Automatic annotation (TrEMBL):
Nucleoside phosphorylase domain sequence ranges: 4-240
Enzyme Commission number(s): 2.4.2.1
Protein name: Probable 6-oxopurine nucleoside phosphorylase
Reaction catalysis annotation: a purine D-ribonucleoside + phosphate = a purine nucleobase + alpha-D-ribose 1-phosphate
Ion transport keyword on record: no
């Protein structure tokens, strides 16, 4: 039986509308229960998690990132694509465009950052946290659709749920950041610890504070995501069959999280 591809969707993405034959299930992990939708996108078996829960009720700093990534691991997922609404730190990355990541800067404060807290010490390499193979597939399909795409970008993770100050935005840009969001970390590092091939499709919904000519609102983000939804679904429809066929896994031959499941 083939393994499912994982999707983690954020603000403004309806997981049920992405799939046919969709059914809601839950799985118990060592870090808590996780609800997910399983169904098909074309010929691809897909498991979809909603970061913020049904009704967008969980703020970024309280998302159970470890449970989410562990749930995908336990479901047999090896490749993960995520969506993320972000603000631009550069005038050259305009709202309405898309970005694929190559690195990150982590400014979160209160989130648990690792699976490896007890029983096993593991120092995971983060030279390439985002999957080059998944990136290539997404970039090919997004370019074929004529979307405005930026690659090799740097995701800045802010704690949230407030928006960033103009001073913070200038600092992030000066340090090499491209876009700023609230949910990319520790999601990507946990995925790397789990040996998953991971990439996020960042949807540029606005310029960040101090770059934008107006005050930022959550409605602005929702409106931009609604405008991008048709293109985003088409990207996934075209990309997931190719991503499914990619070689599996990064890192060690042994599954790095099995000790948690077997302890």
């Amino acid at each position: 039986m083939s393994r499912p591809v994982g999707l983690i969707v954020g603000t403004g993405v309806d997981s049920v509308q992405l799939l046919s034959d969709a059914s809601l299930s839950s799985i118990n992990t060592p870090f808590g229960d996780v609800s997910y939708v399983r169904g098909s996108m074309g010929d691809v078996d897909v498991c979809v998690l909603k970061r913020h829960g049904e009704g967008h009720v969980v703020p970024p700093h309280l998302i159970n990132y470890r449970a989410n990534i562990m749930a995908l691991y336990m479901l047999g997922v090896e490749k993960v694509v995520t969506t993320s609404a972000v603000g631009s730190l550069k005038k050259s990355i305009a709202p309405g465009s898309y970005a694929l990541m190559d690195g990150f800067l982590d400014f979160t404060k209160v989130r648990v950052q690792t699976f490896f807290e007890v029983g096993k010490v593991v120092h995971t390499d983060m030279t390439h946290p985002y999957s080059a193979a998944v990136t290539d597939v997404l970039a090919t399909e997004m370019s074929a659709l004529g979307l405005s795409l930026h690659t090799g970008e740097v995701y800045v993770a802010a704690e949230g749920p407030r928006f960033e100050s103009p001073q913070e935005v200038r600092m992030y840009a000066a340090m090499g950041g491209s876009v700023v969001g609230m949910t990319g970390l520790p999601e990507v590092t946990l995925a790397r610890e789990a040996g998953l091939e991971y990439q996020t499709i960042a949807i540029i919904t606005n310029y960040a504070a101090g770059i934008s000519a107006s005050l930022l609102t959550h409605k602005e983000v929702l409106d931009a995501m609604a405008a991008a939804s048709t293109s985003l679904v088409e990207v996934l429809r075209r990309s997931l069959p190719h991503i499914k066929q990619l070689p599996a896994g990064v890192g060690d031959d042994e599954h790095p999280l099995d000790f948690l499941l077997n302890s």
